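Reopening this one. Same input as before:
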Amino acid sequence: MPLSEETLKRAWIDFKVYKEPQARADLISHYSYLVKITSGRLVANLPGGMDREDLISAGVIGLIKSVDQFDPTRDVKFETYAIALIRGSILEMLRDEDWVPRSIREKLKALDRAQMALETKLGRPASQRELADALTVSEMEVSELLVRAGRTNVFSLDDILGHNQDGDDHVHFIEMIVDEEAQPGREIEGREVRRILATSIDRLPERERFVVALYYFEGLTFKEIGKLLGVSESRVYQLHTQAMGRLRNHMREQGAVHVA
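Same output, byte for byte:
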């Protein structure tokens, strides 16, 4: 049964201040609905051989992590923080399962390499025409690959931030916003990376910034964002991919991340 607002506030205090395990269990139970909502919106059609419970289990790990790490004194809604970590856990599970066909994955890797090479050469994200020329394919094929890249979420803000200093766990962008101590590398303070990330997002074209805000901070799907923007779902995938290219390029220029 969901907790009342007053009981919820008390539970956060009991867990964060007094470390009461029952309060932790109550919080996880109260917010468990976020796992089902996030998994349902993230993956509408399950890859072959995978069960919906697999997504739920991965999402629960993200929920538990979000409850344990969340700081209620920060100016960030718990739901926003939790959805980001739940989504990240599910995507990591899908990546580990390697549910994307090998032939498609190879094409996506080639696309990513071409994007990086052209960004370095041109000093900006490449256009679809330029990518098509580099890959010797049609613009239509590039468009389809960009859509596929968005759907499989091969490249996202979490990928830009990379791994923690031990190299054994992904650093999620939302953790950088909430956690003063979070650091993607020993030589870079979390505060500085957050500043560079915020500056990079502010520099994005309006539509790309809108996509980033709605997808990462509000938890909307690309389909829902498309309806708000009045464009197709595939166009939103493309805007997201372009935004990630710009962010990666700017953060790399600022020395915040080292992209392999």
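So the earlier flakiness isn't reproducible anymore. For the record, Residues 180-188 have pLDDT under 50 and may be disordered.
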